[in-house]
Design a protein that fits this description.
This protein is of the alpha+beta class and about 100 residues long. It is built from 4 helices and 4 strands, in the order H-H-H-H-E-E-E-E. A 4-stranded antiparallel beta sheet has the order 1-2-3-4, with helices on one face.
């Protein structure tokens, strides 16, 4: 199954374009988000987190989604992963 999805998804960019992903089927979007989150350092995302990030693809007012250990933001039609650096850090690390 991993090999099948690897072939279907292709190379996942570090900052994916939401305009491209928005037109894909829901199953493709969920799998791509899971692979992308693993690639930026957030392994083990659950379905609630993945669907939250999927809401960012649809546009609208929601431009940020909080995850365990960080957040995903949409800006300029791209998705960005911000890892929390701890309570003392003033700014999250942008990946």
């Amino acid at each position: 199954e991993k090999e099948y999805w690897r072939g279907v998804l292709g190379k996942i960019p570090k900052r994916p374009d939401v305009r491209v992903w928005r037109n894909k089927p829901i199953a493709w979007q969920r799998r791509a988000i899971r692979v992308w989150l693993q690639g930026v350092g957030h392994p083990g995302a659950n379905l609630h987190e993945i669907d939250g990030v999927r809401k960012l693809l649809q546009g609208g007012q929601t431009a940020s989604w909080q995850l365990r250990g960080g957040k995903v933001e949409r800006s300029g039609n791209k998705l960005f992963w911000f890892r929390e650096m701890g309570r003392i850090a003033k700014r999250a690390e942008r990946c």
